[in-house]
Design a protein that fits this description.
- There is one protein chain.
- It is elongated and about 65 Å long.
- Helices cover about 75% and strands about 0% of the residues.
- The chain has one domain.
- The longest helix is centred in the first third of the chain and has 37 residues.
- The two termini are about 20 Å apart.
- Helix 1 runs antiparallel to helix 6, helix 2 runs parallel beside helix 6 and helix 4 runs antiparallel to helix 6.
- By secondary structure, it is mainly alpha-helical.
- The chain contains 7 helices and no strands.
- Keywords: Cell inner membrane, Cell membrane, Membrane, Transmembrane, Transmembrane helix, Transport.
- Belongs to the TRAP transporter small permease family.
Length: about 160
């Protein structure tokens, strides 16, 4: 189990690097758009669309990393009230429900891809399958990270070993 979690964490390092690059590119595109529109008076017609698509990927990739580190927004009242095995069972149940949701999201995302693959984006002229691919990619990463978080519940912590 620990080896699987290490592999997933290695994948997350790569995702984090990709996420940082996307965020940097998106920021530079937005700055270039502002400069070109207001100072040069020659707007970059494609930069807003590409920035929007990068933002969608950033959200899905970032959500998967947040899932891994239990940093997603959640209501902590019940888990905070529980201790020991009851808390662990509740967390496992939450992760299992999340995995089921992400599998459904993946399936629906694949279905959406088949519907939009023939459409082209307005400015870039690319297939809309590329922006919509963020949904199944994000769902896979969210599922993988949910599995890692679930497995963490069964891996003894260092403080538990003493």
């Amino acid at each position: 189990m620990q080896q699987v979690v290490k592999i997933i964490d290695g994948l997350n390092k790569v995702v984090g690097i990709i996420l940082a690059i996307m965020l940097g590119v998106m920021s530079l595109l937005i700055i270039a758009q502002v400069i070109s529109r207001f100072f040069i008076h020659f707007p970059l017609t494609w930069s807003e669309e590409l920035s929007r698509y990068l933002m969608v990927y950033i959200v899905f990739l970032g959500a998967s990393l947040a899932m891994r580190h239990n940093k997603l927004i959640s209501i902590e009242l019940l888990p905070e009230l529980l201790t020991g095995m009851k808390r662990k069972v509740l967390l496992c149940l939450v992760f299992i429900v999340s995995i089921v949701f992400f599998v459904i999201l993946f399936k629906q995302g694949i279905d959406m891809l088949s519907r939009v693959k023939m459409q082209s984006s307005a400015s870039l002229g690319i297939s809309m399958a590329f922006p919509y691919a963020a949904i199944p990619i994000g769902a896979v990463l969210l599922t993988i990270n949910s599995i890692a978080a679930l497995l963490d519940q069964f891996i003894p912590k260092k403080e538990d070993a003493h």
